[in-house]
């Protein structure tokens, strides 16, 4: 997995430049001494920039080594040569290349800001204005819009829907790049629902990451085995679709969306390319940019999850907590705990309620509160068996399974 500390990022930048010259050429204005911090990498980058000015191209590792040996004292050259050897040894995956390319401007901006903070007392008013303009120009360089004419060819992307075996969901479906959320109160059944969805996706042949925060990962293994009818370990190993599911445990209330993305990247490197993530659940995450206002964190987290779903072309199922005003009554979108804006990015929002009578009778109400692709306010009074992780035929409606 690519590390994002400064030294590794510096080394990856040089490796990217030499092995993928187009990245360097397309972003030439940003490859200056401020984008890296390691002084020997700064030195190597300057050699590359000088070479480009002279030869209109990017040097090879062999050329850089020969140049360093010939033109610089041995004490200096040996350190630079060691640095070059370290950089050349990096196995640059597509994932790492994407990360570097996607963060060139951000790294330059962050480094400039960091450097300015360390020298605030030394900067006069004119230097501060120059820095502000440099930062502004970096932001302006990132074109954030796309314009088309009415006669341009329409780029149609097929919506790839992953079935869950629940008619309430599958009638409209949740597609790759989309988020589905279940809203429910404490202890009502968020984990049961999400475990059910993860299991059905696995059985459907879709590679699924089931990421949990509360309890022990073995507890979730037991839940999945219960849903499958408690097969033996040998039977599980022989199952054709069982290998489609991985369960990962993260610390509660200290994990971020960056951790989620790191898990995806690590699995992709190992050859497990996920079709879906089932995240149990959104409210257990903390924001990457910690702020006092929790509602700002809520919005940031759901925006980042949408970005992950679209970037890796996956279906993302999760859940959110309902507030106290939603206890023992029919839920609406306004009953979400925290900011209602956390629901804005969801393609589908489902409410789960179970009154005391339903809990005794293993029943539950599932209601569709939001749906970008079809009808609303569809509800089912379902059979709900938490021990067996079963969500079965609605009691007075069409069959779900």
Write the layout of secondary structure elements.
Layout: H1 6-19, H2 21-26, H3 39-55, H4 61-71, H5 74-88, H6 94-118, H7 125-141, H8 167-170, E1 179-184, H9 190-203, E2 208-212, H10 217-227, H11 233-238, E3 245-249, H12 257-269, E4 276-280, H13 294-311, E5 315-321, E6 348-353, H14 356-360, E7 363-371, E8 379-385, E9 390-394
Parallel strand pairs: 1-5, 1-6, 2-3, 2-4, 4-5
Antiparallel strand pairs: 6-7, 7-8, 8-9
Helix pairs in contact: 1-5, 1-6, 3-5, 4-5, 6-7, 9-10
Shape-level CATH architecture of the largest domain: 3-Layer(aba) Sandwich
How many strand segments? 9
Helix content: 40-55%
| Main β sheet profile | 9 strands, mixed
Q: What's the overall geometry? A: elongated
The largest sheet has its strands arranged as: 3-2-4-5-1-6-7-8-9
Structural class: alpha/beta
Contiguous helical run count: 14
Strand content: 5-15%
Poorly predicted sequence stretches spanning 5 or more consecutive residues: 1-7, 397-401
Give the end-to-end Cα distance, rounded to a whole number of Å. Answer: 40 Å
């Amino acid at each position: 997995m690519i590390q994002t500390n400064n030294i590794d990022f510096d080394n990856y930048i040089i490796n990217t430049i030499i092995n993928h010259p187009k990245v360097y050429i397309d972003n030439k204005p940003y490859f200056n001494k401020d984008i890296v911090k390691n002084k020997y990498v700064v030195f190597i980058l300057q050699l590359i920039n000088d070479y480009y000015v002279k030869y209109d191209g990017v040097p090879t590792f062999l050329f850089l080594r020969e140049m360093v040996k010939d033109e610089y004292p041995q004490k200096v050259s040996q350190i630079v040569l060691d640095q070059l050897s370290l950089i050349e040894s990096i196995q640059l995956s597509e994932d790492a290349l994407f990360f570097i390319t996607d963060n060139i401007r951000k790294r330059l901006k962050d480094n400039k800001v960091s450097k300015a903070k360390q020298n605030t007392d030394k900067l006069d008013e004119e230097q501060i204005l120059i820095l502000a303009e440099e930062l502004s120009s970096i932001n302006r360089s990132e074109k954030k819009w796309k314009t088309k004419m009415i006669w341009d060819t329409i780029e149609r992307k097929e919506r790839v829907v992953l079935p869950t075996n629940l008619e309430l969901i599958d009638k409209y479906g949740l597609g790759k790049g989309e988020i589905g959320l279940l809203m429910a109160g404490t202890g009502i059944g968020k984990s049961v629902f999400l475990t059910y969805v993860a299991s059905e996706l696995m059985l459907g042949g879709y590679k699924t990451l089931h990421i949990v925060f509360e309890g022990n990962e073995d507890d979730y293994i037991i839940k999945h085995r219960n849903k499958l009818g408690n097969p033996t370990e040998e039977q599980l190993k022989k199952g054709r679709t069982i290998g489609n599911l991985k369960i990962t445990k993260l610390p509660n209330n200290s994990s971020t969306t960056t951790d989620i993305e790191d898990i995806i990247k690590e699995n992709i490197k190992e050859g497990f390319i996920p079709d879906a993530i089932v995240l149990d659940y959104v409210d257990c995450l903390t924001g990457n940019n910690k702020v006092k206002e929790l509602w700002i964190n809520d919005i940031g987290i759901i925006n980042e999850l949408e970005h992950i779903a679209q970037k890796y072309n996956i279906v993302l199922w999760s859940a959110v907590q309902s507030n106290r005003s939603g206890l023992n009554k029919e839920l609406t979108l306004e009953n979400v705990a925290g900011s209602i804006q956390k629901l804005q990015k969801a393609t589908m929002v489902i409410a789960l309620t179970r009154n005391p009578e339903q809990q005794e009778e293993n029943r539950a109400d599932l209601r569709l509160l939001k749906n970008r692709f079809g009808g609303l306010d569809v509800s089912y009074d379902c059979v709900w068996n938490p021990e067996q992780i079963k969500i079965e035929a609605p009691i007075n409606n069409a069959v779900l399974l």
